Amino acid sequence: MNAHAKIKYWLEENRQRGTRLLQQLVQEGSIRGNESSAQAVIIEKCRKLGLSLDIWEIGKDQLIKHPAFCSDRKDFSGNPNVVATLKGTGGGKSLILNGHIDVVPEGDRNDWDHDPFSGRIEDGKLFGRGSTDMKGGTVSLLLAMEAIIMLGIKLKGDVIFQSVIEEESGGAGTLAAVLRGYTADGAIIPEPTNMKLFPKQQGSMWFRITVKGRSAHGGTRYEGVNAIEKAMIVMTKLQELEKLRNLRIEDPLYSKIPIPIPINIGKINSGEWPSSVPDIAVIEGRMGVAPDEEMKSAEKELEQCLKEAAQSDNWLKKNPPQAEWFGGRWLPGDLEQDHPLMTVLSESFEAVKGKQPAVEASPWGTDGGILSKVGNTPVVVFGPGVTEAAHDVNEYISLQEVFDAAEIIALAMMEWCGINQ
Amino acid sequence: MNAHAKIKYWLEENRQRGTRLLQQLVQEGSIRGNESSAQAVIIEKCRKLGLSLDIWEIGKDQLIKHPAFCSDRKDFSGNPNVVATLKGTGGGKSLILNGHIDVVPEGDRNDWDHDPFSGRIEDGKLFGRGSTDMKGGTVSLLLAMEAIIMLGIKLKGDVIFQSVIEEESGGAGTLAAVLRGYTADGAIIPEPTNMKLFPKQQGSMWFRITVKGRSAHGGTRYEGVNAIEKAMIVMTKLQELEKLRNLRIEDPLYSKIPIPIPINIGKINSGEWPSSVPDIAVIEGRMGVAPDEEMKSAEKELEQCLKEAAQSDNWLKKNPPQAEWFGGRWLPGDLEQDHPLMTVLSESFEAVKGKQPAVEASPWGTDGGILSKVGNTPVVVFGPGVTEAAHDVNEYISLQEVFDAAEIIALAMMEWCGINQ
């Protein structure tokens, strides 16, 4: 029995235990500010595996002052970052395995068919907020490590497992890990890619645009200026900007993606009274950033677009719309497609699935941007689960994919870090 | 000294008392649900004048089931309607003098230069929420009645003074008075017309339009349907509908008004998260109704417009925007310009001001719609104060106009009701 066969067999034999671990993690709902109980499950697991643990509360000066820091959270205490290292024997390449423990809010519970934190299993799927994004992927990582440890396989390079907070809100957890010194020769982030390899990731950042009007009674609305009408001019301009920006994208990885770097208008609020002319409209959204683009230059492009919108209208000329950059901010990722880590992951995928993996660019930002741009660590995003299920009601993950991903990642670990025969 | 000269003199001599009455009324802020203390001031005044008082809580079955009833208020108890009648000697025409006691909320107090309920006087202006809309007008009515009573002038026809609640929210107070039997040969409503005569009034009604989308992650926004984008299609159609409807208005009374019957989009809310595609957008607004138009036919026109908007877009075709008619609803008013009440008021105006009054159509609905359409009572809206000040911060009224209006209304009362020599 070769090492691959042993891993396959071990994963089959431990399917129930692995499933139970994922169930536990989902049941410990870890919405922002409440990550500690899910982290406790991770810590217990890592302790049992004999890994060297580093548990710390993020939020020190160095982090908050870093230009890539992005968070509106005031207090990180009680909800630590966890890093657990499997020390190699030396002479191999190191590998970061990064998963985030925070999940987005469940939304309206009535929209769910069952309790959003049930961890209910049906037809080979495990349901619950965070199952796909991304506790399923984290369990793939832990299973891959456990298989290697339990099978007595000795890796040369270090494997650095990370369970971080704050990915959904801008990546402060991974940034804190990078600043604490955790960088490596490569990293895998098992976000739900539907088992595709994503060497490039779309970055993104949130914007808020304030458009002014002048209030009046609705019956004499011509005495005022309707902020909603003016906001429509701005939003039409943003739609044009999105078209322009996407026409420039020529990377074949994006050839199948309708809008590689969308500008999403996610929110608008204006007005307080049906029969008054509203004097302010606030638009919030998310601007996609191309893998090879600087965040600053994307910012400038949107700000320039607002200036042009202002020039097209006499009122806006005197009352130009204002942009703020707030909240979420994810650096893009940009790894060459023939990077050795891509080769290793592709070969491992083929060994398990009997076919070549699909390679695409991710339509969303991940902590990969921070790991690669700030931590100089080459990153591939690859994991179980489908994007569409993430953030949605009745979020679920296919358990088969969790175990397939574990198998592929275990093979990749051996290949990347090297084995002491 | 003829009757006019006596009235003029009486008003001059009682300027301080009249001003103090208005100040008291403004100081008793009477926002919806808190009308009782301002009504108490009115009741005390009417009692001293020896008027026959009818004080009652509205909200009985007959009112609530009436097709013109429009209110989302559940409880009217403790905040009565007040009607005070000055009985005539007989043989004359009756006259309703109608003022509403409710005022709109003051908004953000910080935007006011002084306490919004101060009743502060400066440069001949009295400041405060409700000063113009329409406690100033109500004081004109009370002063006109008091002058006539105190000067011993005996009117033939009845004068029915009304201080009603709920005008700002759809006219349930005046409707209740009509249903209680208070109709007359004519009515004056001293809303702030800037001393112009308004024989016609724009009606209006509130609408709420719900536009559906489909949620998705902002990074793959093409997997969803943005409710804000679809709402923009609807709002553009509403703008076109407004143009069409106003092109049809040929009444010369509207010749100086840029948009005789506006469709005001007063409010939009959509989305909860910048990086999600919003799945619902809710638009609220106010539709102006022409003096000679049926409310129902205006409703149908907007609903038809939504159907056309739906036809222009594949998504909307399957997910048509829905309209609701909620909240405020004011019937239009439509009196012929050569109605005897117009003549009487014009002549009284000329006797006081030495020039012809301006005659226009009001850009907003008043309780005149209910009085004329439900109560069959011919209505002219005429009063002190400027529309622009109503509902705005630092609302104020010119005290001179309050007394001028009182003088004009007193003359009109004598002319309309007739005098027993």
Automatic annotation (TrEMBL), chains A, B:
Boundaries of each Peptidase M20 dimerisation domain copy?
201-312
What GO annotations for molecular function exist for this entry? acetylornithine deacetylase activity; metal ion binding
Pfam families given for it? M20_dimer, Peptidase_M20
Q: Which residues form a coiled coil?
A: none
Necessary cofactors: Co(2+); Zn(2+)
Q: Which InterPro entries match?
A: ArgE/DapE (IPR010182), Bact_exopeptidase_dim_dom (IPR036264), Peptidase_M20 (IPR002933), Peptidase_M20_dimer (IPR011650), Peptidase_M20A (IPR050072)
Please state the Enzyme Commission number of this protein.
3.5.1.16
UniProt KW keywords: Cobalt, Hydrolase, Metal-binding, Zinc
Give the similarity note: Belongs to the peptidase M20A family.
Q: What is this protein called?
A: Acetylornithine deacetylase
The organism is: Sporosarcina globispora (Bacillus globisporus)
For this protein's source organism, the top of the classification is:
Bacteria, Bacillati, Bacillota, Bacilli, Bacillales
